[in-house]
Design goal:
heterotrimer, A mainly alpha (about 425), B alpha+beta (about 475), C mainly alpha (about 450), B: about 475 residues, alpha+beta, Cytochrome Bc1 Complex, Chain D, domain 2, 3 domains, two-stranded antiparallel sheet, 6 strands, C: about 450 residues, mainly alpha, 16 helices, globular
Chain lengths: ~425, ~475, ~450
Amino acid sequence: MTSNLRLTGDYQAGDLAPRMKRIGLVLAVLGLGAGAAMGLTGDADAKTHFWFAYLVAFCFVLMIGLGAMFFTIVGHVVNTHWNISLRRLAELTMGALPVICLFGLAMLLPFFDHEVDIWQWDTINSGGTHAVEHGSDHGGVGAQSLSDTLDHAEHVHIVEKKAAYLNRNGFIFRLLAYFLIWAWIAKFFLSKSAAQDTAGDSVDNVLRMKKVAAPMIFVFALTISFAAFDLIMSLDETWFSTIFGVYIFAGSFLASNCWLVIMSKWLQARGKMTDVINTEHYHDLGKWMFAFTFFWGYIAFSQFMLIWYANIPEETHFYMNRTMGMWQNYSNLLMIGAFFFPFLALLSRHVKRSTNVLCGLAVYVLFMRYLDLYWLIMPNYHRGEIIDNPFGLVEISLAIGFIGLLLFGIARNAGKQSLLPINDPLLAKCLGHKNL
Amino acid sequence: MTETLNDNGELYGVVAEFDDVTTLCNAAEKVREAGYTKWDCHTPFPVHGLDDSMGIKFTKLPWVVLAMGLTGCTLAVLMQWWMNAVDFPYDISGKPQWSLPANIPVIFEMTVLFSAFTAFFGMWIANGLPLWYHPLFRNKRFSRVTDDKFFVAIEAADDLFNSAQAHDFLKSLGASDTEDVYHSAESAGLPGSLKGKLVVMACLATIPLSMVYNSYGKTTTEPRVHLVPDMDKQDKFRAQGQTSLFADGRMSRAQVEGTVAQGDLDDHSNNVVNAAFIDRGEERFNIYCSVCHGFDGRGDGAVHRRATELADAGHASWIPPSNLILDLYAGQSDEELYSTITDGIRTMPAYGGQILEKDRWAIIAYVRALQMAQKGDSVDTTGMTSEQRGALLFDSQTCSTCHTVNGARLIGPPLNGLLGQEITLDDDTTLVIDEKYILKSITNPMAQARKGYPKAMLEVELTDEDLTDLLNYIKSQK
Amino acid sequence: MANSASTTHLDIFPEDLVQGTNDFHSITETVCGIIEAPKPPKAWYIIFGTALAMLGVLGAMIVYLVTTGVGVWGNNQPVAWGWPIVNFVFWVGIGHAGTLISAVLFLFRQDWRTGINRFSEAMTIFAVVCAGMFPAIHVGRIWFIWWVFPLPNQMAMWPNFRSPLLWDVFAVSTYFSVSLLFWYMGLVPDLASVRDRAVSKTKRFWYGLFSLGWTGSNRQWHRYERAYLVLAALATPLVLSVHSVVSFDFAVSQLAGWHTTIFPPYFVAGAIFSGFAMVLTLSIPARKIFGLEELITLRHIDNMTKVIMATGMMVGYAYAMEFFMAWYSGNEYEGFTFINRAFGPYAWAYWIMVSCNVLSPQIFWFKKIRRNLVVVFIMSLFVNVGMWFERFVITVTSLNRDFLPSSWHYFTPTWVDILTLIGSFGLFFTLFMLFCRFLPQVAISEVKNVLPQAHPHHDAH
């Protein structure tokens, strides 16, 4: 089968890799530097804002990497063939995870700065009340009266009950554990896949990857869920939702499919991979974008519907915070911009097969992924208060910085092997398949 | 299938048999290139690549499906809005009557339903199916089209068609066999007798539908059909009823000797009627009673108004709540009112379970206050005829709650044209109505109750003069 | 190069979906032969007879219920939702695999679906019939069941569209209609096969009537395939929605143990899980009885066990999340409910659920076991049992110790409850046995399509 294949294209990153590495590094330094210069030099409020924005940007690229990880693993588990020519790109994307996670560790710094309270459960645990006062003392109407449906004592009491999980040491330990596990998975699949290129009989490597992939799905599900609880859900220390891990997973996989579209398009514009990623592959990625736009919408709606309908105080403040004042606009924007519009746009077979349109949509959907995270995280800044839209230069420069990190992380590995698993036994099938 | 080739009619075309898909695809390409337009391939399964070989244009079906899906979506929104927010607004705990999130599941389901039906039926319609008959079925070899053979059929209706040429052409493309196919000489449609039967059946099918339509929204005096009498008819002992079970023949049993009151069955005479007590009564009255009896006690609460609207539109029957200001109720003792609140009366449900005992007395105190406050508006009857005064009494003494004078049945019998009417009594004796019977029925209604009506009428105490007026009024109603 | 049939390579290049020396004709022969045989196999008579007897029991139970009242069931305060809803959710769940196999696997291009899709679609429809029966009879006066539809009634009232129970009516009836269309559409070309081979006139008439005059025209196949794809694309979110709506029945409430946001996807995963188990329970004996071993191969069974393992772990994930969140929420009612589930009076049911649904499928990690028919069959029964208990645990353990300790009550079913459940299996198997006898059990035209000779050889490469 493979022996019949005539692979004549250019599948080596070549000098693109060092160039991207430089560009990524420059973007990262400039973006993160500018963000820090704007955010960290100001007062406590500006610093708090900075850290929330930093968390959004970090989670955004983290989700792209994790989605790519799922893309790779699940491909092995279900023995699919259409994704083979895209697999190396996904592997490279998740290969950026160690770099991203390293910068994610910065989210531990707010523990040591008494002026900011990002992790408000930590503030409460360490006896400080200023997290809760933050709402009640500021600005007249205040958080407590508008959205916090629990009274102060009750609030503190609930956080105390969770202290066995939400405590500083446990949090640091868990964060390190997730990052190490992800780094290991990324390294394992990237190196085994790279070994395929040189090995004579590539079947053994594939079988080895398949064996590891199945249990890794389970590890992946647990780590992404608990990371979502720790990094995002715990920001609102009394809120809880069992579906939250699935919500974040849906967004991740969607983001990674968009990323793969953009990456393929970008490489092809530079003459790489031109003959191995064809309209059928874009069509398939488009289908996944469509499916996960729908799935994300389904999960988001399920969570909203159940909390809205039952309307119980422990949960409902999450949506109250996000439907008050300016946040209402974000909620509406997400509903229309992140669900209805891409859903209708991707419905058409024609759109999914017009690669330029699809690439444009991918960029757009990625932006919506950022907004989704922004909507999850940022309302915790001045929680429950009517504030002006905090979105500004800090957010933009931090996002650019983290995208730079992602590019750097990808380019770091890109030159070490081919961009296509040329010896994969299923490659021929991959290149021959057609969408109905 | 059928090999009766002696009834051949017109030529349908030429059909060629192929043994494998590759030959078929190549042949299809050639047939298309030869310029034929009315031709088709027939295969046991969809052969991928054949669409391109034949040059089939992509179907528009998905767009039709999308359009119908959006129609279903819109209809679902409109239906739920109209039904739940406009035509019959549900007020549940004061929540908004129209809030979209709760309607999304049904919107989604209807969108899918409409789309799926369109995809399914649209596909058959576009394919021209179902078909009772097709000339190809008359070819014996063709029966293997659903098994393992592949066919190309060129129709005689094609402009380029020439039987001999077509045979040669198809053979040259690798056909293992070619044959002419003829239409049947007989008509291809349904047999006439079957058509007639279908029409008759369709007509018969409309009968139950029209019966349902005819009875929609109508009231009836016929008792309901008791398919399963489980909840309608239950064996039980009723207060004041008779039974052969006990020696004294009474269903109600006397209290066991030595029984003492338990709990706060206290004497209401301890209640101090003061402003606070009446205020409490007002509050409770407004919560529990005003929905039917109205805030002023005159029996025109919100429920009553809505129900009357429905009843007027013919959608329901409705027994109006009593006007508590009437002398009838002013004349009732506190204990009687208390009993009504506690146990309910006629269609009014029992409120004993919902209103605290003390509050029931407070409500009564407030009702008394309402009655006193509104006593001033009695009617000046000077100069009226006896019948006119009777008419006033008929309405004000709530006779009209249960009786009409237009022949319609509410709870009690209609009261027009009574004199001389022959009726059956509860003990199955018959009787011709005279004045004496009417008077007796007012003062002691249950003594000679009519058969077929609930024994629900209360004794009415009236002065002799009022009685005469009422009698004259009833007599005047023919 | 790597196409050598060494066993280790089966993971990459699985064996053919049609085994033996089959060609187009032999597939038609195998499948249609079952219908054309003058007498069905003996096993068919035994199963059909048993099922018919159980159906009789169901009939008797329904008559008794309707004429006496729902008091004959064990439902009472505080467990007002007893076995009827447990059985309803159980059957609806089973009814999910069919459309999943037909639609979702079709969209995912998993062509192994062809061998089992007809089977599982039929199973779906019959399971939904069984499911729909329970809400219908539980209303007591079943002649008023039409009030759940938005039809004008004499009270001039409309249904309350904000009630999740009404969403159920729409979801289940839509699902049933669409599944039926999907099933029938797939059947049409196969019914035409039976028609063209039929010898008796009656058979030719009836199969001819229902095959709608199908001639296998490629212009028709083209639209047919598009419509099939559209239906698959519609059925996929529909599968998600139906069990999500069923989960809303519970989850929109404020009851600890019911109100949790993971319910919609969790119910969907559970439904797929139980549905695949039921497909295995049915197909393992059926392929033997009707000689379909070459069309429903070990590869099909292997794949199904993998799906079972995957969905079983999703269900396990949901159990774990619920437990974790019950504690993490800091809400004592949530916490109590879950402690009560695992260690309260119904601990036995909870642990049956966990061991059948989460632990037992773990043995499918081993390929040998995945291909051992006896073990797989027994495991599929375990999963069926476990999933019934899941619904039982959710329903009953959340209710039996409600907020008022004085009304705590240990729920026990009555004999009518038990016989009704058994009877519903009678209904299911009666319908299924009739299907096996009179309709093509395997999608003939689709299986032909996975044979290598079904694809034209272009000389392009």
